[in-house]
Design a protein that fits this description.
The complex is a heterodimer.
Chain A (H helix, E strand, L loop, with lengths): L2 H19 L7 E2 L2 E5 L8 E6 L2 E5 L1 E2 L7 E2 L3 E5 L6 E11 L12 E8 L5 H6 L3 E3 L5 E5 L8 E15 L8 E12 L3 E13 L6
Antiparallel strand pairs in A: 1-2, 3-4, 3-14, 4-8, 5-6, 7-8, 8-9, 9-11, 10-12, 11-12, 12-13, 13-14
Chain B lengths: L2 H17 L5 E12 L7 E10 L8 E10 L2 E8 L8 E25 L5 E20 L8 E2 L6 E18 L2 E10 L18 E12 L2
Classes of the chains: A mainly beta, B mainly beta.
């Protein structure tokens, strides 16, 4: 076989592998809110929102093989010195319309809820269907260069669905988590139409 | 090959073969009622079926069929939620679903029997047809500024292959040639949707009644 033919076959194989790994990320555009995904509760692993009318979405990972994975939230219980601890739900985010060329881009957002010192997964599940108004919660956004949770404001949070999906084996059990949020940080940062839908492994929630 | 190209290719092949035939041809036009049998919340439609059989010879029992289903409208509900503390946190919206369905079929018919009165029973078989299913969704009184519908249904316009079969009874009333047809069609033969909707691909079951016209006698 000629060397040129071998090169063509090798190139074809590489392109085939690349093509197979080129899946679309999960994003289901909402016709009423350009740049945002629809409000869902099916474990699509999407969070979208407007920050000052710019659409943001959670960032994604693209391994060489196996398609595209939207990044999952980090859910932690932050122990404080006050009477309450804080439930922190954070996402890595990016602008969902890179062609727009905005100057300033936020790279993470966190929902912060005051919780009791004895907060457990049982209490987490009890948040299902509850709406938490601005007088109790906070919301934080971060740039690459500011300290975490220094840009903090008020937020509304609504957990439309929190569910534990038991598989009998704890390592395969999951939590489904979906809802709405909005908020503001002073008058300069306005977060609107936030919506999230995730299914995460139960062992990633440490409370 | 794109489906539209396949459609044009099949149509041209069939038209050419029909043009070469020197025989009696027939056109059937029928209408009735159609019900989707693939969804629990069944869609009802008014079908219009046009069957063109260009050959007189029973050994060439091929036909072309065009089916268009006009929607009668189906209702469902959707849950909507809001963060606005001044509004109820959850409401139920009425959802209107308008399903349109167009199918182009290229099939053959099997003669089952003919009675003494010259009434005949056939089985129309379509191993592969092209179908377009266009479903339009609207939510009544949807306040998009304050509320978000959870897992909303959205408009879809999907094309794919289907299979179908239809027992057809040809009979005579006075001097008119009539037909009665029960048409059964599979859902679209394609992968599940990426985004899950409350309805699946339609599988219309049509009961139609109409006239059979002969020409080139």
């Amino acid at each position: 076989m000629k060397k040129e033919t071998k090169n063509i076959i090798a190139l074809f194989c590489c392109l085939s592998i690349l093509f197979v790994s080129c899946n679309k990320r999960k994003f289901f555009p909402d016709p009423d809110d350009p740049g945002l995904s629809r409000l869902t509760s099916r474990g699509y692993d999407i969070v979208t929102m407007y920050i000052n009318n710019v659409p943001y979405i959670n960032s994604y990972q693209k391994p060489i093989f196996g398609g595209i994975n939207n990044t999952l939230p980090i859910i932690t219980k932050k122990i404080t010195n006050s009477a309450f601890d804080t439930l922190r739900i954070s996402w890595q985010i990016e602008i969902n319309n890179t062609s727009a060329g905005y100057n300033q881009s936020y790279n993470s957002i966190s929902l912060l809820l005051p919780i009791s010192k004895s907060f457990s997964s049982h209490d987490f599940l009890a948040m299902n269907g509850k709406r938490f108004p601005t007088d109790s919660n906070a919301i934080a956004v971060n740039y690459f260069y500011n300290y975490p949770d220094t840009l903090i404001g008020k937020s509304n949070i609504y957990f439309i669905n929190i569910k534990y999906n038991s598989s009998g084996n704890n390592s395969n059990s999951t939590y489904s988590l979906s809802g709405l949020f909005n908020g503001n940080i002073g008058d300069s940062i306005l977060i609107t139409k936030g919506r999230f839908d995730f299914e995460i492994n139960a062992d990633q929630i440490q409370f | 090959m794109k489906i539209s190209n396949a459609f044009i290719f099949c149509f041209l092949i069939f038209s050419l073969s029909a043009a070469n035939a020197k025989a009696q041809s027939a056109i059937s036009l029928s209408t009735g009622i159609s019900s989707d049998i693939n969804n629990s919340n069944s869609f009802y439609q008014i079908p219009l079926a046009l069957i063109w059989k260009p050959f007189k010879d029973k050994k060439s029992p091929v036909f072309l069929e065009f089916d268009y289903d006009f929607p009668l409208g189906s209702k469902s509900t959707g849950e909507a939620f809001t963060l606005n503390p001044g509004l109820p946190q959850k409401i139920i919206l009425q959802e209107k679903i308008m399903p349109y369905d167009f199918t182009f079929s290229f099939g053959f018919r099997i003669h089952l029997f003919t009675s003494k009165r010259n009434n005949a029973f056939y089985l129309n078989v379509v191993p592969l047809a092209i179908c377009n299913q266009n479903i339009k969704i609207s939510y009544k009184n949807y306040d998009t500024k304050n509320y978000e519908v959870l897992n909303p249904d959205v408009n879809t316009n999907e094309t794919g292959f289907v299979m179908s079969m239809a027992p057809v009874y040809y009979f005579h009333i006075r001097k008119s040639d009539m037909l009665l047809m029960l048409h059964l069609q599979t859902p679209l033969l394609k992968e599940k949707r990426d985004y899950e909707l409350s309805y699946k691909y339609m599988a219309p079951m049509q009961l139609t009644f109409g006239y059979n016209f002969y020409y080139n006698k």
